Automatic annotation (TrEMBL):
The lineage of its organism: Bacteria, Pseudomonadati, Pseudomonadota, Betaproteobacteria, Burkholderiales. It is a multi-pass membrane protein. One of its GO terms (cellular component) is plasma membrane. The keyword Phosphoprotein does not apply. This is Binding-protein-dependent transport systems inner membrane component. The chain crosses the membrane at residues 21-42, 79-101, 113-133, 162-187, 208-233, 268-292. Belongs to the binding-protein-dependent transport system permease family. Pfam families: BPD_transp_1. SUPFAM superfamilies: MetI-like. It is found in: Cell membrane.
Amino acid sequence: MAQIHSNPKRRRSRRSWAASIALIPMALTVVLAYVGTVLWSVRVSFSSAKTFARDDFVGFAQYERLFNTDRWIVSLHNVALFGVLFVSCCLVIGFLLAVFIDQRVRLEGVFRTIFLYPYAMSFVATGLIWQWMLNPQLGIQASVRLMGFESFTFDWIVTQDKVMYCIVLAAVWQASGLVMAILLAGLRGVDEELWKAARIEGVPRWRYYANIVLPQLAPSVGTAFVLLSVAVVKVYDAVVAMTQGGPGDASEVPAKFIMDHLFNRANIGLASAASTVMLLTVLALLAPWWYARSHAARNAGRAA
């Protein structure tokens, strides 16, 4: 009898060991290929490395040089502007699209596919499409002028003080569908009886969503916010495809600054310092979200 009972335990133990062994290659990849390279980059940022890595130590000299570089400061201003507009527009548009689909409209599946499809495209493809559309010689401006409106002007993509808005437009078009999908999943978890009760009380629909639905969507909104914020920090493909950082350095962003100094200007010390700054930015964005998640999990555990 004891032998019969021990067999299932042995099988479970063997499966557990097999699963652990199967995870070893992935764990080694994470430790060596990711954590190892991050630590190596941080170490290089404290050296005087140029074309090749060096084993010396120059303290924060690379960071001082970085923040005294006008191009880096411009890239920080640009990514801040991009981040505020991109995140806020994606959250608002994504929420409105989710509310629209949550009304059980006809052809719901078709609308979901249409709204989510841009996110399936690469940022390079998105950037090229919008670059063609916004090109004054080929896109919207040229098309409208062919219709007879000769004075129509829409040349933001070649205007220094407006080019970042073009990149925001392309990025919002691509990412709003992702926010819609996340928030729609949250909306489908809201009890429909709440709307019935609110309707009986005469609560307007906008107030129902603002005061009842949105607080319940806080975890979904938080997830969307973190994903969008990380996308802001690493924005690169769309900028390269649309403007190459121009005109001048008007659309320069930190990721492009890093790639240019790493591969084109052979200055891996400065590039490593810039990448370390961006890593710290990502960690600063993730830390509050992680703390909130862990705090909620602890409270749920205590309540149980």
